[in-house]
Amino acid sequence: MSVALLIDFGSTYTKVTAIDLLEERFIGRVQSPSTVDTDVTRGLFRAIQLLKDQTGLQEAQVSLRLACSSAAGGLRMVAVGFIGRLTAEAANRAALGAGAKVVAVTERQLNWRSIRELEQASPDIILLAGGVDGGNYDVILHNAREIAASTAKAPVVVAGNTEVTAQVCETFRRAGQPSYACGNVMPTLNTLNVEPARKVIQEVFIRHIVKAKGLDQAARYVGSVVMPTPLAVLTMVELLAKGAEGEPGLGDTVVMDIGGATTDVHSACTGEPADPTIPMIGLAEPFAKRTVEGDLGLRVSALSLMETAHRNRVILPEAITSALGNSEAQVRAEYLSSHTSALPHTLQEQEMDRAMASAASWMAMDRHAGSIVYDEATGGTAQMGKDLTGVKAVIGTGGVFTFGAAPHAPLSACLYDLANPSSLRPVKPEVYVDSHYAMYACGLLATVHPAKALRIMKRSLVAARTPTPTPD
Asked: 371-375 and 380-384 as β-strands: parallel, antiparallel, unpaired?
């Protein structure tokens, strides 16, 4: 037996998944409370011992160890750009695509107020963009000087107008602040080029952030932490869509990941209009896209989820009040927000979780998917964002799907809605649940054995039968 141990150092739990590489099967999955604040190896070795106790695994059988991390707040990034809806948004997308938690986005010339906000954000990495190639360079030079003079001494990834990249990096060198040059995230107007920035962010994560968060203590056993956890998931989503080394993919794919603090949506598709007569407007979309909704979580963000749902008049939360009554639902949400490891025990509590997950799924997909809008320039309709109507597969990953009593409910909520026809949600996809909660693990394995990881991941997918409304 040749076993791979795939490890995720999370803020709450350290998770370990064991996979038999020869037979391409899951051996087991365990989790133990993380100990990042003291000695990260304590939580790691507790989890590994639990795995050995449950499966009979022997250390001599382990041939590969890979790890990712979202511990200590994950990879905190600030994106700095020129125009919020263009360059800064491109920087924001590059950061999200690299698995980062974007804690702030600033635009135009930084002033004392925005510098103070940047300093208070305490980023792990600063992504500095601004100007298309050959375009404006005053802003990125000004912002480089302001950042270098500030107390925000995080490594800087320089991804703006390439004509002044060397000058920008020299500004940081003189200030003793590490900087890393890469291609412009927006080399021409409305054209995204986020992949070079994603790769550099991953390199900076490994070089600087792992050590800063104390994860290097586990290096003797693990080897190294190779990427942030969200990037491992996005890597797997893209592989599921495209296939690898003769192993076919599923086609265009969407993954819904509902957690305690956030709801993440990943899509791997071009998202071009299904109707070629409909023009695209706005910023071009990357093939592999990740969005993170910090107000849509089932535990830490339970109160904000309910408030956001009611404010946006989402119909689904009515199931919450019908299950518990309005006042009781509020009390339960307050309890969940401060007892983040609480599990549902009664039927009412299970219904509460299911309804909250459905609301989170509906709103997160509404924000991630493109839509049909009125174009003032032409006086007709146009598409803004990704068209997901033709997506082939929608997958639910996370505890609410793997361990929940009715995972089909939140999956149904993210599909096409007859009451919201302008939202370009998936219409008739195959719908699956990640039964082994293996998305991060297989994403890690894909860095070494992509085709093997894809086959194993596909074996974790279990069909979730759910109604799929279709447009008239």
From this structure: antiparallel
Of 256, 258, 239, which is closest to residue 248 (Cα–Cα)? Answer: 239
Class of domain 76-208: alpha beta
The domain defined by 3-72+213-223 carries CATH number 3.90.1700.10: no
Q: What is the DSSP letter of 88?
A: I
Q: What is the dihedral of CA 112, 118, 119, 125, to 10 degrees?
A: -140
Q: pLDDT truncated to tens, each residue of the chain (472 aa)?
A: 899 999 988 767 889 999 999 999 999 999 888 776 667 788 888 999 999 999 999 999 999 999 887 765 567 889 898 876 677 777 777 877 777 778 888 888 999 999 999 999 889 899 999 899 999 999 999 999 999 999 999 999 999 999 999 999 999 999 999 999 999 998 988 788 888 988 888 788 777 666 655 666 777 788 777 788 888 999 999 999 999 988 999 999 999 999 887 899 999 999 999 888 999 988 778 899 988 888 888 888 888 888 888 777 665 555 555 554 566 778 888 888 888 778 888 888 888 888 889 989 999 999 999 999 998 888 889 999 999 999 999 999 988 888 777 788 889 999 998 888 899 999 999 999 999 999 999 999 999 999 999 999 999 999 986 544 445 4
